[in-house]
């Protein structure tokens, strides 16, 4: 779906290479994009006729078990971090697919299986090393360049290139996790139950809701190709309590369940195999506070019409620990929303692009009226300035003033752009 041809790709090994690439891009007046994990559906890791600064070789990690922190190179994927931390029984809140880049996911917010327990990924950044538009190297944390530190916790790649992150890690090794699936005809019943059930449950219990088509193995053969609704759970409380916690869930008699003790990296990579690189993607998103019955009915309708086997809809919880951070403490302006909703048309065959795009847009138009307004910036396509502003709400002006200070020429503009006003 993304078909762009840059002039040059700078495959950086270290900070020195990043500085050289930034200086070269600036001195030659090139359009510059920054590539972390390359997962951005809007194609913001690449650009036409410009310079791509590719960070994927800066993929080192260093775990400090004394302080429970992990230092992560700016081009790592989440699989690198899961792997490094797990040996020490440590985990950083990440997304649900381990091939996603740490850089893009973190700078936009970061939501996944640990959101309710440990907050968004941005709530766990302690420090970042950065190369700015003028080629200078700085560290941003609560004391040093505190304005920049505020801005990168949700403001995307607008302010500079992060060459390393320092994350707070949590003592999470094995949780009780996995999917429960029901026939698509039960979407209304299960979604209404889910919407009411999870919200007041302890932060130890997480579950994202999904509409999907059951892929092939390892799922049982009779289910292959069947449209279903489901919830993918992660319970991080004491394992001895898990069966009790899952009792009311399993009483809903899922068609299929695979919940049980699971090492954290296994959970985070469980669906990688179904979403390899090279697929066509088109998505649309919203933040959600409530899911009224009218919205539930639309989900049921469009779930029945999933256009291709890879297409899906996810409702990711963003309450729990993510609600304990103030609305203006980071740029993430929807601390009062309960879900981040994403409708995703996906297929390997480019001839189906119109089909997946149409379903996604129609579905989005039908449920958008029930949303909170903006969307998670990492789930935006090229949807214009107003949509970016809506996603940051009253934090937008502060982001602009920090952009004016650190990148007044808008050198970093291949992103959900915060336009400078100087
Ligand atoms: C299969 C899949 C699953 C996903 N699952 C989740 C999920 O569970 N949770 C979630 O929160 N999101 C999820 N996402 C969305 C994801 O957060 C965004 O697509 C994000 O932009 C990906 O980051 P990346 O580094 O891989 O992307 P890229 O395309 O490489 O970059 C995206 C943007 O980030 C900037 N950027 C990347 N690295 C750096 C850096 N080090 N310094 C400065 N700027 C940088 C780029 O300039 C660009 O603007 C998923 C996406 C996909 C495709």
How would you sum up this structure, described in words?
The chain is α+β, with helices and mostly antiparallel strands and 422 residues long. The chain is built from twelve helices and 16 strands. The strands form three sheets. Strands 9, 10, 11, 12, 13, 14, 15 and 16 form an eight-stranded antiparallel β-sheet that branches. Strands 4-5-8-6-7 form a five-stranded antiparallel β-sheet. Strand 6 and strand 7 form a beta hairpin. Helix 6 crosses helix 9 and helix 9 packs antiparallel against helix 10. The chain is globular, with a radius of gyration of 21 Å. The mean pLDDT is 97. Bound molecules: flavin-adenine dinucleotide.
List keywords for this structure.
binds flavin-adenine dinucleotide, globular, 5-stranded antiparallel sheet, single chain, 422 residues, alpha+beta, 12 helices, 8-stranded antiparallel sheet
Brief synopsis:
With 422 residues, the chain is α+β, with helices and mostly antiparallel strands. The chain has helices spanning 15-27, 78-86, 102-108, 115-118, 146-152, 187-198, 242-250, 264-269, 293-304, 353-367, 385-392, 396-406, and strands at 8-11, 32-35, 51-54, 61-64, 69-73, 125-131, 137-141, 161-168, 174-183, 205-213, 227-235, 256-257, 260-263, 280-288, 312-317, 339-347. Strands 9, 10, 11, 12, 13, 14, 15 and 16 form an eight-stranded antiparallel beta sheet that branches.
């Amino acid at each position: 779906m993304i078909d762009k041809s840059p002039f040059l790709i700078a495959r950086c090994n270290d900070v020195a290479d990043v500085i050289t690439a930034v200086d070269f891009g600036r001195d030659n007046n090139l359009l510059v994009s920054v590539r972390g994990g390359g997962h951005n559906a809007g194609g913001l890791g690449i650009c036409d006729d410009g310079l791509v600064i590719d960070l994927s070789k800066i993929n080192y990690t260093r775990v400090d078990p004394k302080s429970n922190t992990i230092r992560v190179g700016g081009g790592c994927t989440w699989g690198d971090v899961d792997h490094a931390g797990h040996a020490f029984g440590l985990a950083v809140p990440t997304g649900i697919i381990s091939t996603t880049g740490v850089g893009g996911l973190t700078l936009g917010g970061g939501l996944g299986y640990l959101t309710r327990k440990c907050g968004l990924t941005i709530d766990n950044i302690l420090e970042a090393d950065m190369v700015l538009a003028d080629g200078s190297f700085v560290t941003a944390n609560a004391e040093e360049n505190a304005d920049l530190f505020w801005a990168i916790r949700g403001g995307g790649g607008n302010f500079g290139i992060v060459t390393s992150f320092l994350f707070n890690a949590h003592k999470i090794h094995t949780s009780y996790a996995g999917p429960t699936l029901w026939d698509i005809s039960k979407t209304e019943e299960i979604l209404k139950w889910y919407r009411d059930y999870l919200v007041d449950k302890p932060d130890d219990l997480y579950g994202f809701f999904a509409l999907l088509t059951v892929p092939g193995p390892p799922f049982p053969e009779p289910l292959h190709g069947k449209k279903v609704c489901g919830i993918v759970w992660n319970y991080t409380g004491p394992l001895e309590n898990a069966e009790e916690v899952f009792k009311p869930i399993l009483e809903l008699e899922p068609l299929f369940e695979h919940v049980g003790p699971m090492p954290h990296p296994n959970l985070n990579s469980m669906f990688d195999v179904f979403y390899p690189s090279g697929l066509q993607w088109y998505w649309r998103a919203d933040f959600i506070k409530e899911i009224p019955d009218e919205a539930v009915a639309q989900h049921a309708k469009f779930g029945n019409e999933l256009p291709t086997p890879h297409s899906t809809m996810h409702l990711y919880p963003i309450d729990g620990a993510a609600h304990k951070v103030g609305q203006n403490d980071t740029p993430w302006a929807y601390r009062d929303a309960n879900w981040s909703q994403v409708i995703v048309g996906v297929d390997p065959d480019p001839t189906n692009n119109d089909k997946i795009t149409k379903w996604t847009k129609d579905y989005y138009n039908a449920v958008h009226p029930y949303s909170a307004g903006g969307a998670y910036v990492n789930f935006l396509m090229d949807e214009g300035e107003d949509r970016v502003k809506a996603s940051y709400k009253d934090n937008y002006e502060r982001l602009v003033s920090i952009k004016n200070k650190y990148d007044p020429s808008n050198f970093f503009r291949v992103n959900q752009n915060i336009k400078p006003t100087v």
